[in-house]
Amino acid sequence: MSETIILALPKGRILAELGGLLARAGIVPAADYTEEDSRRLRFPTSDPLLDVVRVRPFDVATFVAHGAAQIGICGADVLMEFDDAEIYAPLDLGIGRCRVSIAESEHRDAAENPAQWSRVSVATKYPNIARRHFAARGVQAEIVHLNGAMELAPSLGLAQLIVDLVQTGSTLKANGLVETEVIAPVTSRLIVNRTALKTRPEAIGAWIERFRIALEAPAP
Ligand SMILES: Nc1ncnc2c1ncn2[C@@H]1O[C@H](COP(=O)(O)OP(=O)(O)OP(=O)(O)O)[C@@H](O)[C@H]1O
Ligand SMILES: O=P(O)(O)OC[C@H]1O[C@H](OP(=O)(O)OP(=O)(O)O)[C@H](O)[C@@H]1O
Question: I want to staple 65 with a disulfide (CB 3.0 to 4.6 A). Which of 84, 91, 123, 204 is the partner?
Answer without folding.
Answer: 84
